[in-house]
Amino acid sequence: MKKALLITAIIIVIGLVGQSDYEAELAAERHYCKMVEEGSWPAFNPETNCDMERGNE
Question: How many domains does the chain have?
Answer without folding.
Answer: 1
